[in-house]
From TrEMBL:
The gene is SAT2. It comes from the Eukaryota. This is Spermidine/spermine N1-acetyltransferase family member 2. It comes from Monodelphis domestica. GO terms for molecular function: diamine N-acetyltransferase activity; identical protein binding. Belongs to the acetyltransferase family.
Amino acid sequence: GTDGRVNIWKSGDKGEKRSDFHVGRGGRWEGQVPPLPSDLAEVKSHDGDGFLPKPTAKELAEFEKLLDQVKISEGALKTDGFGENPFYHCLVAEIPPESREPQGSTVVGYGLYYFTYSTWTGRNVYLEDIYVMPKYRGQGIGSKIIKKVAEVALEKGCSQFRLAVLDWNESAMDFYKARGAKDLTVAEGWRFFRFDNEAMRELVRM
């Protein structure tokens, strides 16, 4: 996961215009890819069969310059997301088999979210990760994932859809602001704190 930081990368190549923002490393995919109509990419809930976010989460962490913080195993991801008591939920963006390359996956992006609770506003949803494979970026898939998370939140009676962005990632902040999100650090002065594993151990020993 991104440890709560949702990061959207916008291509910085001169002369290149994109219709969407996208998550991942700042490198550009080599080679030409025929445009994929966004309505061909279906975003739906995922049951854990055949796909885990581990490899793509590592790419996201590398983009964030936080690769050393990725500690989780694929086994833990599968148990925590697709076991009897899931800690998170996963959406996947899939394309038709005929649109993929030979031996390629039909899963071209994902969103990872979980539910939280506020004594002020009740049910909330928190978006932990959003990722689209490099060759499928700029085609509206990331926007469809975010929209689907909002739909799930409303269906579950959530009053808020929360996420966090690294302070240097201005493209991500602009992307969310343009869609109605509020920067709580600026607007309300909130700062988020974290106890890591060692800090928790020290805390219980106090």
